[in-house]
Specification:
This protein is an all-alpha fold. Helix content is 77%, strand content 0%. It is built from nine helices and no strands. Helix 4 packs across helix 5. This is RNA polymerase sigma factor. Keywords: DNA-binding, Sigma factor, Transcription, Transcription regulation. InterPro entries: RNA_pol_sigma-70-like, RNA_pol_sigma-70_dom, RNA_pol_sigma70_ECF_CS, RNA_pol_sigma70_r2, RNA_pol_sigma70_r4_t2, RNA_pol_sigma_r2, RNA_pol_sigma_r3/r4-like, WH-like_DNA-bd_sf.
Length: 180
C-alpha cells in the first residue's frame, strides 16, 4: 500500500480524519502556496485561497474517486479556487481578470513578501500578458517543474496541448522580454 493510498484511507476514516488532514496540510501546504501565489500574486490573497482550498479538500475528500493522484486532485481544486478568486475580484471591482492580474503585478513591488528584483518583476509582467491557460501551464512547468502527465490530470487536458501551450507561452514571453 502506497503512502498516498494509506493517507486517503485515513482521510476518509472518521477516527483518523483530523490527524490525516494535518499530515496532508504538512505535505502540500508549501507547494500549494507557491502554486496559488503564481496565479494570484499577492501573499495575503494566496493565504486566503490556500485556506479555501484546504477547506474544500476537507469537505469533499469523500468525493475523491482515485481517478488521478490525490496531489493532482488537490492541485485542481487550488487552481480552480485561484481562478474563482481572481474572477470574483474582477467582478467586484467591475474590471477584467486581466486588469486584476495587472493590478496584482503592480502591487508586487510593495508586497513585503515579494523578494524579486526588476528582472523577476518584468517576467511576471510578461506572464500576465498571456491568456489564462498559458499562464497556468507556464507557471506549473517553469516555476514548479510539474510533469506534463500530472499537469494533464490537474488541468484536464492532453499532454500535447499542454506542450504546445508551454511552447507558445515561452515564445511570447521571450518576445515581451526582448522588445524595446
Amino acid at each position: 500500500m502506497t503512502n498516498e493510498t494509506q493517507l486517503l484511507e485515513e482521510l476518509k476514516s472518521e477516527n483518523l480524519k483530523e490527524k490525516a488532514f494535518r499530515t496532508l496540510i504538512t505535505l502540500y501546504k508549501e507547494r500549494l502556496y507557491w502554486h496559488i501565489r503564481n496565479i494570484v500574486k499577492s501573499h495575503d490573497d494566496t493565504d486566503d485561497v490556500l485556506q479555501n482550498t484546504f477547506i474544500k479538500v476537507y469537505k469533499n475528500i469523500h468525493n475523491f474517486k482515485g481517478d488521478s493522484k490525490l496531489f493532482s486532485w488537490i492541485y485542481r481544486i487550488a487552481t480552480n479556487e485561484s481562478i474563482t478568486f481572481i474572477n470574483k475580484n474582477a467582478k467586484r471591482l467591475q474590471i477584467t481578470s486581466e486588469e486584476i492580474q495587472q493590478l496584482a503585478i503592480n502591487n508586487l513591488t510593495s508586497d513585503i513578501y515579494f523578494e524579486g528584483n526588476t528582472i523577476q518583476l518584468k517576467l511576471q509582467q510578461a506572464i500576465a500578458t498571456l491568456p489564462e491557460k498559458q499562464q497556468l501551464v507556464f507557471n506549473m512547468k517553469y516555476f514548479e517543474d510539474i510533469k506534463y502527465k500530472d499537469m494533464s490530470d490537474i488541468l484536464e487536458t492532453s499532454e500535447g496541448a499542454l506542450k504546445a501551450s508551454y511552447h507558445i507561452a515561452v515564445k511570447k514571453i521571450e518576445a515581451y522580454l526582448t522588445k524595446d
